[in-house]
Amino acid sequence: MSKVRVSKRKVCCHGDENDEGSGHPLIYLDMGEEEEIACPYCEKTFVHDCTVEAVGEVSVRQSGLRNNR
Ligand SMILES: [Zn+2]
């Protein structure tokens, strides 16, 4: 299980872009009052960290482009 630091409490996940076998439909996760949330599909844990830029969103967009090829 991997942890990803994100700058926002709302994140989207479509699986691990480094492992095609763990891919899943794109879903949005909202931490609400929590500081972290685990994706119910791939169990990747998103940890809120306001010192990080929106790395998670960037990586999702990049892998999305790759999937469209
Ligand atoms: Zn996921």
Automatic annotation (TrEMBL):
Gene3D superfamilies: q5lls5 like domains (2.60.260.40). Residues 9-46 form the Zinc finger CHCC-type domain. It comes from the Eukaryota. This is Zf-CHCC domain-containing protein. The lineage of its organism: Eukaryota, Metazoa, Ecdysozoa, Arthropoda, Chelicerata.
